[in-house]
């Protein structure tokens, strides 16, 4: 994509250093989770691939797309970060009330989420909507953004 922008212009838009843009472009590093929503918004598409089919990967993908660390999402869900880690690894699954909270916080559709280990309904993917991502970004700690 050639928009005639300099790396410094893009860095200012996303809120990172110019060298960070260079590292991302040359695949030295991937964006930290708090910058993913801004990268997707800037590009106008999700460069990170198609949505996964299993619940653990769907959960992690939705969390990262919202720009949240595991700890930040756990605080919003009022669960221990280790519990969230277990969900993302497929070692356990959330109870229905936690599933509803996940859907509400991450802006996923009301369609059931799938599970690779057969624990939940048929595999579907709920995308993080722009409004939900914006709401989560606004409520995130300001220390992550310049």
Question: Could you characterize the architecture of this molecule?
Answer:
With 146 residues, this protein is an all-alpha fold. The chain has two domains: 7-43, no CATH class; 55-144, Orthogonal Bundle (434 Repressor (Amino-terminal Domain)), CATH 1.10.260. Helix content is 50%, strand content 0%. It contains eight helices and no strands. It starts with 6 loop residues before the first helix and ends in a 7-residue tail after the last helix. Mean pLDDT is 75; it is low at 115-146.
CATH class annotation of the largest domain:
Mainly Alpha
Count of helical regions: 8
- What sequence of helices (H) and strands (E) makes up the elements? HHHHHHHH
Specify the oligomeric state. single chain
Biggest β-sheet, characterized? Answer: none
Structure summary:
Helices cover 50% and strands 0% of the residues. The protein has eight helices and no strands.
Main attributes of the structure:
single chain; 146 residues; mainly alpha; 434 Repressor (Amino-terminal Domain); 2 domains; 50% helix; 0% strand; disordered C terminus
Could you give the topology of this structure?
Blueprint: H1 7-14, H2 18-25, H3 36-43, H4 55-65, H5 70-77, H6 81-89, H7 96-106, H8 130-139
Helix pairs in contact: 1-2, 5-6
């Amino acid at each position: 994509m050639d928009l005639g922008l300099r790396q410094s212009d893009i860095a200012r838009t996303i809120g990172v250093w110019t060298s960070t843009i260079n590292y991302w472009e040359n695949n030295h590093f991937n964006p930290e989770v708090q910058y993913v929503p801004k990268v997707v918004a800037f590009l106008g598409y999700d460069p990170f691939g198609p949505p996964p089919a299993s619940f653990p990967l769907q959960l992690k993908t939705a969390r990262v797309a919202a720009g949240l660390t595991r700890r930040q999402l756990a605080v919003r869900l009022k669960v221990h970060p280790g519990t969230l880690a277990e969900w993302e690894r497929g070692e356990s699954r959330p109870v229905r009330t936690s599933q509803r909270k996940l859907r509400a916080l991450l802006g996923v559709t009301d369609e059931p989420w799938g599970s690779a280990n057969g624990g939940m309904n048929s595999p579907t993917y709920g995308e993080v909507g722009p409004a939900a991502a914006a709401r989560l970004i606004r409520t995130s700690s300001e220390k992550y953004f310049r």
